[in-house]
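Posting this for the archive.
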Amino acid sequence: MNKAIYFLLVIFICSCNNNTKSHLKENSPKKYLHLSHTRTNTNPKMDSVIETIDYSKYDMLWLGGDLAKSTSISKKAISHVDSIFNLGSTNTLWSLGNHDYKKLNLVKKHTKRLPYYSYHKNGITFLILDTQDSLSNIVGKQMKLVKKVLDTIDQSSHLVILHHKLIWMSGNQELETRIKKTSNGKLGDCFHCINPNNFYTDIYPLLLKAKQKGIGVICIGGDIGFKSKEFEYKTPEGIYFLASGIEFNHNSENKGLVFEHDILSKKLKWDFVILPKL
């Protein structure tokens, strides 16, 4: 074997090895973390455990809003939150809560995104909703985005919808009775309330169509923590409503929502884990 052929053979073998390693890494099991309502009553500090978690252990971070008392009131406030959660990372998805909503220009500066958007990663399609806009109703350009994503979704194994308010509790005869013991915000007509909305008239039918295509549909809210630390409900059609949130300085009870994703088998499972074990 002459030197030229030998050299090319070495390059080919190295290239195959690198491609194999890259493929294995890309399809290795992933771990995601959902956190919400991390605020304290002193801006911009968050719960002490939240500020010390090693987030590098997670492939993605999903945030359900109300990160600080007034997250975007100033550059100093949002910069502190950014130093913990890396808000500009494509692996950090953030659904805004009422305590995050002061100056949306500062939010956009750090995230490089609108308050609502779609994203795709690891075979999962994400919809991040802004439930503060239009008092819990998803309308206008945001509704057009929802329709566009759900009209074209077909290759994803899962659809994950991140939102702050528990909008699927309003208009559901069974869940409305559980609002007082679950949601931070009451059912009513205020900026932090769960307002009567169009989830079941305009959005849920589209979710059912996605489910009928064999896509797992999971909606994750973030406005809990004061009255409950976790919530899980499966609709008769097989769509999941989840929520997680914390109350600062209650670390023996506070929980994050941890997802384990097997990309090859297309399985996504979850568990509520107390903060010190994250």
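The mean pLDDT is 93. DSSP finds seven helices and eleven strands in the chain.
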